[in-house]
Amino acid sequence: MTFISQTKEADVVLIGGGIMSATLGAMIRQLQPDWSVVVFEQLDELGLESSGPWNNAGTGHSALCELNYSPAAADGSVDPAKAISINEQFQLSRQFWAHMVSSGYIGSPKGFINTVPHMSFVMGEEHSKYLRTRYEALKPNPLFASMEYSEDRNQIESWAPLVMRGRADTGRLAATRAAEGTDVDFGRLTKELIGFLGTHDGEINYGTTVTDVRRGTDKKWQLKLKHKASGEHGSIKARFVFIGSGGGALHLLQRSGIPQGKGYGGFPVSGQFFRCTNEDIAAQHHAKVYGQASVGAPPMSVPHLDTRYVGGKKSLLFGPYAGFSTNFLKSGSLWDLPLSIRPSNIYPMAAAGLHNLGLTKYLVSEVLKSRSAKVSAMQEYLPEANGADWELITAGQRVQIMKKDRKQGGILQFGTEVISSSDGSISALLGASPGASTAVPIMLEILQRCFPREFKLQWQDGLKQMIPTLGVKLNDNPGLAADTMAQTASVLQLD
């Protein structure tokens, strides 16, 4: 019996069985059904790393509640541009998911998306003043028109009872709420999308690691394969390769040897969450409540209390508590970070490290926190929380981008970045947040960058079927924005 793929050549090879590869594969299958598509996932199941429901916040990032997407300027003003951009991107993802549901390509949307209001909650005079300014900057925009603001404790308690119950009646508090927020199980969505690909002539390989990616003399990419369980080796050629393996993407990007990938490094950040599966407690809270990050903390460490739906069951998640591990994947090796160091990236990585000593100090303090200290931190947001009701779980591994910078030598970047060869034959995705929520616009960028002729001359009609408002800014078209959001909400069965 053979375990390695017997396909010797493919038009498209997708490395990694997460939401990014799943989205790109589902798009290509509809745009170019005559192309052969092969997926390689090194684990025995899809979506177990960053796409897994307990490995990410599942927020459906749309900048409704994430304060780091709209920080205050030095003069106290708030520029809504980035928040609007993030929301625009999420609307594209919603349209694509609605298309997949309405076309019968994937199952019930209730399996992967549910309505959960998005809230921001802050304490103290300065933070409350900021939140009011943020609200006033976002509210006039069509994509944020439903946002509510309140400093009334009774109103905030009606929105988030667990956050207010037992809280001392002192100090200024403020909150915003957007009722149309969502919770997304990207692990379930990944399985649905790759399931569609598998039933439409795509080939899905599990337990198979891509160990090397090299350009052949015929200009095609030669991939070396290893089946973990059997130890069997193999290879496959590809006309186009997408490296969407999360933290594992950096190693393969380096192996490819493309000049565009030189100088990039990765800084892994681990994290833990408190999870409560007590149905009586979970029933008392229905929102995602985001606070302000601590001074020196990275954006992904913003404290939040999330309502989650996983496998049809409602639970609560609080965190994160940042940590550090040299793994690039949760299932990876402690050697991932040291083995990623190259002559081309050692200086940018060192420079970025020197410019982020505050982050290092923060991570050390987080690692040293006891469980009781973590419970105390949670009680700042849930005053009556009982640590016995919450279990501490380890979340997915995030690998932040470290890259060259003319002024500083090297910088640490907290977003995502697409790196492609000059001829578009290979592309990789590095970075983290907002990640999964913006998978569709990220994959659109890859399609446009790597297949410019097809994108412009052949695929426009197909793309418009998947994403009707492609190329249009919804925030600049209030009527269209309202209609589009209502239509996708109806198809996705959102309340």
Provide a concise account of the structure shown:
With 495 residues, the protein is α+β, with helices and mostly antiparallel strands. The chain has 16 helices and 20 strands.
List the helices and strands and how they pair.
Elements: E1 9-15, H1 19-31, E2 37-40, H2 81-102, E3 113-115, E4 118-123, H3 125-138, E5 148-150, H4 153-159, H5 161-164, E6 173-178, E7 182-184, H6 186-198, E8 203-205, E9 208-215, E10 221-227, E11 233-243, H7 249-256, E12 265-276, H8 279-282, E13 288-290, E14 304-310, E15 313-323, H9 336-339, H10 346-354, H11 357-367, H12 371-379, E16 391-394, E17 398-405, E18 409-413, E19 416-420, E20 426-431, H13 439-450, H14 452-457, H15 460-466, H16 478-491
Helix pairs in contact: 1-6, 1-13, 2-16
Organism: Arthrobacter russicus
InterPro entries: FAD/NAD-bd_sf (IPR036188), MQO (IPR006231)
Protein name: Probable malate:quinone oxidoreductase
Supply database-style keywords:
ten-stranded mixed sheet; 32% helix; 495 residues; alpha+beta; FAD/NAD(P)-binding domain; 16 helices; eight-stranded mixed sheet
What structural class do helix, strand and pairing data support? alpha+beta
Give the CA-CA distance, first to last residue: 50 Å
The CATH topology comes to FAD/NAD(P)-binding domain
**CATH architecture classification:** 3-Layer(bba) Sandwich
What share of the residues lie within helices?
25-40%
Count of alpha and pi helical runs: 16
Chain-averaged pLDDT: 93
- Compute the CA-based radius of gyration: 22 Å
* Number of E strands: 20
Biggest β-sheet, characterized? 10 strands, mixed
Oligomerization status of the protein chains: single chain
Uncertain regions spanning at least 5 consecutive residues: none
Q: CATH class, anyone?
A: Alpha Beta
Shape: globular
